[in-house]
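Chain X:
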Amino acid sequence: MAVCPDASFVLAWFLPTQGSRAASDIWRQLLRRGERLTAPPLLFAEVTSVLRRYVHGRSLTHEEALAALRQLFLIPLSLAHDQAIYERALDLAGRLGHAKAYDAVYMAVADLEQCVLFTLDRGLYHSAQQMGIATRLIA
């Protein structure tokens, strides 16, 4: 099974306060089995932004955020950034009536790269389901 992890799923693995034990268990399984992991470059910016927000709110130290960010770069991810992905994201966001297309980029990657989108974000999960995109809600 190929997987497109979103930022919430990545952060749940790195930050116990952000996610669940289930996310950590699933990550271990995915990596042990050598599953194909594909994500948009947006993933790195989103994770960095959330880490910074936690540092700003004093939930993490700068060093802890930096360690988590370094873990992200160790994940064997292939990046999907074809023009078609962004065109599909624009279409999906429009069809869903969304003002922004960030979540739609993950949906487009999952759709066009034939991956299952893994997320802890219920809104993203429901949007993907509505568009017929394979998704798994990690709870």
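Chain Y:
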Amino acid sequence: MADSIESNLLHEILPEELDWERLVVRYPIPALLLAAVGGFLLGRSHGPGLLTALSSYAAAEMSKNVGQILGQDIG
């Protein structure tokens, strides 16, 4: 599996002896349900803050990409 932000975060949080990638491949439906429940609970408890952070990140990335297309460094 390619290194991604999510993969790196999970490797930092979970114990090293837990092979979560194998578990997800072997049990995809329970893994999906667990992720859905976790996302729901996280959204209920921290929804507005997460929405603000995600929209700020999306705006910054869009600004960076538009700047690259136009050949300018917006910052």
